[in-house]
Recover the amino acids of this structure.
């Protein structure tokens, strides 16, 4: 188990180094600097700006500075905004994290619920209904679902606010838009695994012993179906966070995803670099946690790791 | 001399048996696939979409970039079946041009992934040993990077445009294909009949093309069928972020993203591209499921 974690951590560290280096190279080779977009800047001002942000240092020097900054969690100043990249992350990440957490939980509840209903009514109408809905959700990109939700619930029915952030009504639609696709995927995973488990001999034995359906459900079915969903958790978190780039923009939510998108449009070097590195660290750490969590809850894998 | 001859005979008989088996397998596979209504629906919709995408822009009286500012934001009607956009361009023809771009991109990017993935995964799995170890570690490192971040970075670097989207998406999705191919090759390589073929003196080429390739082609097809909708999805996502193909060309994702700006007042500008993205996704998903279920005897029920 320790060996597994060490192995995964080394992989992640190499991957991180690759992505930091890649972002650095990419940002310094794209045509057009951060000041080349707006009205023509006087050469003296440009010179001062370049000096202020150390853009005239050698690439090796800038690369080294960037790394030493990263180790102090210093992502440098934003070129566009008046605050540092770290300030932006500190301010915007809680918003994204909140939305992300609600969406992950919602996806798990909807997905597991759907999967359980589907499996227990195998080839009857509730099963068909759940399968149909999940096929639909698997086919609709989150930004389309988001706009449909706004159109129906905000513009036509006027039940929910169309955008912005702050109270609980404003979290419903973005969370739904983000969780629909992963929920559909989870429900399919759960359905397949429950159907398989229901046919296992130990479930039949448990029935024969006289265990009630409910206790079989809690002792065997739920545990195993959660196990099959955990393998998907890392992907789930990544997809919700990358999905939030788009969804935060549609709902005008002041989260990290929105800054990420505007930073790309503004070609705000340090902000793109900083946010990419931050997202990469965050998502990879989450993946590692999921791996470890999986080791803890599944004894079979634990023993394989020991060999 | 005698010995060589008998080997040739064995090979000949074997290849006949193989092709008979493959034929039967193909028929069997096809029968199972045809018995699955969702798979058939998926396949026919995909074929229909491709045909329409090829022919409609040919026969339309409008072009995708023809602007008529006297008829901006028209609702769907007789002259413009899907209405017009904010510059008075006909949405019907734009949607079908968009279909060309989205589908072409999805198929060509999948094709490139297939070539790279089969070569990389094939070499890694077939040769094995330390080379396999190194090649797979490389993939492991790359795939622990959240891939959409990586695509965004590439797109920022290369600038938007059809070619850039193509390269960016293909450079990410080949990882999946390589991994799948490698796993299959390793699996087939250790099967008894392949081992016997080695012992009988069949060469590397024979093993690869007669034994390994026919056995993994099904998995490759299924993986490609699943990859296509993912690429349609990723492209829509990129276009939405403003990193997709450049204007006035428009993929479905770009059309939808344009449509969102005014969708409160002109909902059809979003509705049509959104509908076709979703329909395409749905039919490819069904097609992929159908193929997988037809291949996998586990689904026999």
């Amino acid at each position: 188990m320790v060996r597994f974690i060490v192995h995964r951590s080394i992989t992640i560290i190499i991957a991180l180094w690759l992505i930091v280096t890649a972002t650095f190279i990419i940002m310094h080779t794209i045509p057009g600097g951060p000041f080349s977009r707006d009205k023509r800047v006087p050469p003296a001002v440009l010179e001062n700006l370049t000096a202020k942000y150390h853009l005239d240092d050698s690439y090796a020097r800038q690369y080294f500075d960037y790394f030493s900054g990263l180790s102090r969690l210093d992502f440098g100043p934003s070129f566009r905004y008046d605050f540092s990249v770290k300030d932006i992350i500190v301010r915007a990440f809680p918003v994204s994290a909140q939305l992300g957490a609600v969406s992950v939980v919602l996806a798990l509840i909807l997905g597991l619920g759907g999967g359980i209903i589907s499996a227990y009514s195998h080839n009857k109408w509730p099963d068909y209904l759940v399968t149909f809905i999940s096929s639909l959700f698997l086919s609709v990109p989150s930004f389309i679902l988001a706009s449909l939700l706004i159109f129906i619930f905000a513009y036509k029915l006027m039940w929910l606010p169309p955008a912005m952030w702050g109270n609980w009504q404003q979290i419903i639609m973005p969370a739904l838009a983000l969780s629909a696709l992963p929920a559909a995927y989870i429900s399919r995973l759960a359905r397949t695994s429950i159907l398989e488990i229901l046919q296992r001999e130990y479930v039949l034995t448990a029935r024969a012993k006289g265990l009630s359906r409910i206790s079989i459900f809690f002792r065997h079915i739920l545990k195993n179906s959660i196990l099959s969903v955990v393998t998907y958790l890392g992907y789930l978190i990544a997809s919700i966070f990358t999905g939030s780039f788009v969804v935060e923009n549609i709902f005008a939510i002041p989260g990290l995803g929105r800054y990420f998108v505007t930073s790309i449009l503004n070609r705000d070097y340090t902000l793109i670099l900083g946010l990419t590195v931050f997202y990469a660290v965050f998502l990879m750490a989450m993946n590692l946690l999921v791996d470890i969590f999986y080791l803890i809850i599944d004894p079979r894998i634990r023993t394989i790791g020991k060999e | 001399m005698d010995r060589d001859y008998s080997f040739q005979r064995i090979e000949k008989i074997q290849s006949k048996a193989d092709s008979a088996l493959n034929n039967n397998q193909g028929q069997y596979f096809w029968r199972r696939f045809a018995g699955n209504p969702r798979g058939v629906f998926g396949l026919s919709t995909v074929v229909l979409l491709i045909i329409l995408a090829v022919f409609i822009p040919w026969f339309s009286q409008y072009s995708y970039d023809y602007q008529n500012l006297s008829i901006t934001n028209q609702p769907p009607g007789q002259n413009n079946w899907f209405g017009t956009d904010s510059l008075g361009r006909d949405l019907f023809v734009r949607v079908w041009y968009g279909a060309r771009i989205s589908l072409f991109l999805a198929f060509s990017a999948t094709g490139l992934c297939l070539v790279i993935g089969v070569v990389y995964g094939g070499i890694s799995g077939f040769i094995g040993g330390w080379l396999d170890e190194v090649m797979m570690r490389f993939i492991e490192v790359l795939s622990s990077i959240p891939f959409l971040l990586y695509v965004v970075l590439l797109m920022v670097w290369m600038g938007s445009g059809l070619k850039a989207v193509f390269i960016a998406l293909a450079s990410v999705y080949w990882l999946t294909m390589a991994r799948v191919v490698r796993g299959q090759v390793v699996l087939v390589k250790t099967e008894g009949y392949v081992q016997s073929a080695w012992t009988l003196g069949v060469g590397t080429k024979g093993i690869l093309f007669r034994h390994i390739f026919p056995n993994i082609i099904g998995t490759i097809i299924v993986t490609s069928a699943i990859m296509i909708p993912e690429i349609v999805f990723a492209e829509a996502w990129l276009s939405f972020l403003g990193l997709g193909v450049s204007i006035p060309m428009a993929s479905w994702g770009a059309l939808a993203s344009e449509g969102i700006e005014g969708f409160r007042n002109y909902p059809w500008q979003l509705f049509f591209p959104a509908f076709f993205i979703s329909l395409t996704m749905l039919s490819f998903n069904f097609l992929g499921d159908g193929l997988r279920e037809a291949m996998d005897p586990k689904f026999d029920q």
In short: Residues 106 and 179 of chain A are 6 Å apart (CA to CA). Chain A touches chain B through 41 residues (CB under 8 Å). Chain A is about 80% helix and 0% strand. Chain A has a mean pLDDT of 79.
